[in-house]
Design goal:
Helices cover 81% and strands 0% of the residues. It is mostly helical. The termini are far apart. It is found in: Cell membrane.
Amino acid sequence: MSTAATPTPGAGRGAVVGAATIAALGGLLFGYDTGVISAALLYIAPAFGLGDGMQEVVVASLLLGAIAGALGGGRVVDGFGRKRTLLLVSAVFTAGALLSALAMNVTVLIVARVVLGLAIGASSLVVPTYIAEIAPPALRGRLVSMNQLMITIGIFASYLVGYAFAADGGWRWMLGLAAVPSLLMLFGLLGLGESPRWLLSRGRTEQARAALLRTRTPEEAEAELAEIGETMREERRFTYRDLFGPRLRPAVLLGVAVAATNQLVGVNAVIYYAPTILKQAGLGDSAAILSSVGIGATNMVFTAIALLLIDRVGRRPLLIGGTSVVIVVLFGLGALYLLPSVQGLGTLLTIGLMLYEAAFAASLGLAIWLINSEVFPTAVRGKASSIGTVTHWGLDFVISISVLTLINAFTATGLFWIYGVLGIIGLTYLYRKLPETKGRSLEDIETSLRGEARA
């Protein structure tokens, strides 16, 4: 064995972190393209003469693409390979960003956002999968969670860009600048290797071994090859029908409940429409966008804090406690709109939305990806997690297409209180069914879930 094939621990760690960072640019693009519409919409609406209904269509068109990308992405990821799927995703991100920036009418803009949605839906599957499959066990949790942190960084960056171009109403620049990180991702991926797990699934054992030897010692590589082979033999025994049998049904329902609660408390109403909501409260365009920058920064910072706490405090305390705070803040936000001509309503709303994002980021923001990766046995994790992913994108679409309509029908107070009530329903289910997964084996978690189902 040559020296080059046996990396030092530091070199192996650096290679893995570098590869994960390049792949996680897909998460940054996910966040940027979902967040940038919040500022751009203030200028797209008058440019194309859009009413509330068409504004919702422009926002929601991206989610339709994301649903399709999530539904079809699994077959592409498994058949085409992780690296090549990432390359395809980065190219689609680039094309969608440029088409959005050059759109001369709303129809072209909607098509461009569907294209971006396809990339987002696929990236939400392939980025965590690729990172998990190249990372050694000691780094896997932190590196996979990097994707969620990059999503929040992308949202924050989109708000900064929105504010930078607000004075000139430069919505085309806001949308088009997403091409910069997508091109960085595209060229960065060219130097990365394929997932060893995917290579082994195609019978390319020597290539899989070579891929592992880039970041593992020979002993570690052989042990991991054996473990991957055993896991793959287990996976071939399961089908989608098995997910709804008595053994796995409790975990599937829990994964769906986490994904549903994540969306039904209205987080993407804030991400997509915060400037619009704040403008309706009396703030000017620039002030509303600047306030959203603070909201995005809060989301990013508290996601980073939660990553540091999740393995110390545990999943259940953060999720139950944070969701409870989210619900209280939602009812408080609704109540603010009942105060007649209160001085500084925009400032109070901004503070409330920042509290909301802080609590959400430290709880439900991480939980959708983390819980779905832990409550399922390894043999069915990919198939089962896809159900939670589709739930996420489907409800995201429902939220995005209904925000302005619900405000018109029930006022902003009604909108926040509806989300609060839905949050209570989700919290009640999670309080009763969510086990603590910190430090427990997957088999132990599965056994406890089945025990609760029989109780």
